[in-house]
Write a structure and sequence with these properties.
single chain, mainly alpha, Arc Repressor Mutant, subunit A, 2 domains, 7 helices, 0% strand
Length: 155
């Protein structure tokens, strides 16, 4: 089942259950995906956005919710911060399990070796490959630091 289908099925379940907060978040996800579909059609990709793009959208939505929650918390609006974090949890349900630090390091080492990367000049190529392989699972900030360390040692 595609990610898009899972989101649709969860929306139906939330409607039947009368879970308004969850339904609202699922509609937000669906709207973001539809916006991306429209942009994909403008790029002459008739099929719309793929699961990898949907994962990227979901990651952005989680980050936005977490940033908003932090802002609300600093302003003393704990009720709004809690609502944002609840939305982030609903969105996270559709993301694959994040990689831990050891898995990120292993993946970085593997890609550096496979691409025969030999210095910082290859950083973009390595990161591009990591993003292709591990979209939605990897913290690319953490991965970038690992790759940089590996490539600096290789030079």
């Amino acid at each position: 089942m595609s990610l898009r289908d899972r989101i649709t099925e969860e929306m139906k379940s939330a409607m039947k259950a009368g879970d308004k907060a969850r339904l609202s978040t699922l509609r937000l996800i669906s709207a973001a995906v539809k916006d991306r579909d429209i942009a994909a059609r403008a790029e002459d990709r008739c099929a719309g956005c793929e699961d990898t793009e949907i994962l990227s959208i979901l990651q952005k939505l989680v980050k936005q919710r977490e940033d908003s929650a932090d802002t609300y918390e600093k302003a003393g609006r704990l009720d709004l911060a809690e609502a944002e974090r609840a939305e982030a949890e609903v969105v996270r349900e559709f993301l694959p399990r994040p990689m831990d630090e050891a898995e990120i390091e292993q993946a970085a080492e593997t890609v550096v070796h496979e691409l025969e990367a030999s210095g910082l000049k290859d950083m973009g190529r390595v990161m591009g490959e990591l993003k292709t392989r591990y979209a939605g699972r990897m913290d690319f900030g953490q991965a970038g630091a690992k790759v940089k360390h590996l490539l600096a040692g290789a030079a």
